[in-house]
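Hi everyone,

Forwarding the result from last night's run.
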Amino acid sequence: MGRKILKTPLCDMLGIEYPILSAGMGPTLIGENTGAPVDLVVAVSEAGGLGVLGGSGYNIEELQEAIREIKKKTDKPFGVDLLLPKNLNLSTASGSGGDRTSIPLMDVLRTLPQQYQDWYDKIKEELKIPDPDDVMIRTDATTYKPQESIRVCIEEQVPLFCAGLGNPGFMVEEAHSVGMKVLGITGNAKNAKRMADSGIDLLVAQGHEGGGHTGRIGTMALLPAAIDAARPVPVLAAGGIGDGRGVGRPFHGLYRRMDRHPLPGNQRRRSA
């Protein structure tokens, strides 16, 4: 029996064997070393997919070291995922000045708009949650230095840049100049169109099942809307896909049959 192959245009675009990308997993802003980042990236890329390094919890030097370590262990394509928040300023948090590389989480929470602080206090009281006195937030992480972090990725000529948060459209031209592809992530159709119009190469439609800072729309409902909004930018699906059954090939077959034998009124709905 021959080897089963699952190949799409994404494979040719990224130079990979299978159209599968790992999520960017790595150190968190509170210092948790999760995801076995470098080894996991290498393993996924070596297996024929594209491994993605989660870089939001590194500082600039650590990010560069991790990228170079990946390059030493594999010559296959890989990506780096960073967060690009539009507005993030810790200077108002008490004690955040000087050379400190971390501050208490409570100091950060108190910089949020008042309505969010009120919500946090309400939930904390209802659920009897103690104050996180011993939890510290890194202030030297790449998340707070997006421009410097992007510069490292461009200098290292990372094959794929992934923005786990924010629109990376502003960096597309420079990224393309060094052969880098740029990927954005969205949780709704409106942002899918906005990112596609900004010039990115790829878009991930991540449903509510993906967790984190995604929206409230489920993946299977989000995906067709994002595809229509972002066309012709290729769209990947994320959230709630745990094995081959979730990839959607049966749905693809159904859509093709409906093209040939449309149900009553279906043609009009599909073109809307």
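DSSP finds eleven helices and eight strands in the chain.

Cheers,
N.
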